[in-house]
Write the structure tokens for this entry.
Amino acid sequence: MTFELARELAPSSWEGEHGEVFTRRWVVELILNLVGYTADRDLATMTAVEPSCGAGAFLGPMVERLVASCVLHNRRIEDSARALRAFDLLESNAELARKNVTAQLVGGGAGLLDAEELAAQWVTAGDFLLLPHSERSADFVLGNPPYIRLENLPADRNAAYRRACPTMRGRSDIFVGFIELGLRLLKSDGALGFIVADRWMRNQYGAALRVLVAEQFSIDAVIEVHDVDAFEDEVSAYPAVTVIRRQQQTTPIVASTTGSFGERDAKLLQQWALKRSTKPLVLPSVHAAQLPGWFSGAESWPSATPEQLTVLADLEKRCPPLEDPLTGTRIGIGLATGADDIYLTRDPSAVEPERLLPLVMAKDLASGRVAWSGTYLVNPWDDEGLVDIDEWPLLRAYLERHGKRVRARHTASKSPARWYKTIDRMTPGLLARPKLLLPEMKSSAHPVLDEGDYYPHHNLYHVTSTGWDLEVLGGLMLSEVANLFVGAYCVKMRGGTYRFQAQYLRRIRVPVAESMRRADKKALANAFAQRDVEAATAIALRLYGIADVPDRMVASAVA
């Protein structure tokens, strides 16, 4: 089947930035070996695609291997016309690539005319993202796609790319489209091997691509090479060697490297990876591990050491999530007003007593207990919704005194008749419910129990549950295991501060509550009461079934 991509724009209609960065030979060799593009296979009977060939950083080694494969398998190189398909947006690059390919083929024994004919068949000047291609037509898609933010392109090119590649959403980079289209080209068990920025695995613009990969493909290897001298020119692009296959998810390889990682280390990593060893690889320049599976869904994929990712993948496979209907556990955020200096007061006579809500702030939790500062929310809500302000004269008078600023808020301008409402509505019943409170910005998890006396401010997240004893759950969330989950998924702030937001708290996995012994529950509750992180961690490791793993595999990045 052929899928037609948007073709309204000729390649020559786009002039300007082309995102060209050329890859070092040893990095190319690593990628070719990891995907299995090797001379011992009958490459003339397969099809490899290079979507952005430039002068031939990938294409040159690919031609070498194809020629060697033809010799090994008793084939004429002239019979491999369909073995390679290479593209480049610029005619000058395509022409240079053809000349280099021709020279390689002649050097390998082909006649000049045959070599020129093959080079012309293999290398196309055109926009890979906007040309027609056949689905499931390639055994390999290999290369270093260009890095260009969509907003830096002309509007018509931007729109055409978005139509051609539905996963390019938001403030995307065009390499997302190269990954999507490359994956669509793969045959069953075909492999894509790119060196590409890994930001799509974590940023919002990569969400649709993450879903596509998780649902239809298998992550085979991710080797983070952020500080490695992998390119001919110095770039800051957060690159990773990324291998994805069209198959059911298997046990992927993950690796992190230092700036000293080079050709010799790449060969050692490659040997270890191809053996599929279950024993981690630990070298001065690279740590690598085999995970039991990969991470699913549109949410960001974790960023952590290979050892920590091993633990995370195992726990996500075995343990239920913290927020779970089966235990009635829910995660929420406190109330935002849009004008705290107006809606928050310490004057208990400012408005009617019924319109004051005791509000707990992040600073009230510093000791590990709630030490209420006496702050109230001037509360325009009751359990039925927004109150009729005319029925509360003190409330009306108080807000009218600040009427100009209250009405200037965005939430008020959207609903002029409800000008006095806060951004968030009060959640009925939350005040009286016992809840764990967690400040958003912390270097480690800081759960504090509120027995049901206060309502949380917007920079606090809260956890309620009908199935958990909250002191037991508090012990689990005090442990380094909770930090491991949040630290791997969250966007870290300057100084290593974590953001304990709902989307990251939901990534925490917990043991099955009913399977825990009474003594373990008591020990966790005691650790929580005493704020003993070490004791909480030791108990948690045993309950999660990972007590025998090295400390570095669960320690938070800040610890």
In short: The longest helix spans residues 91-107. Residues 30 and 267 are 7 Å apart (CA to CA). Residues 11-246 form a domain with the Rossmann fold fold (CATH 3.40.50.150).
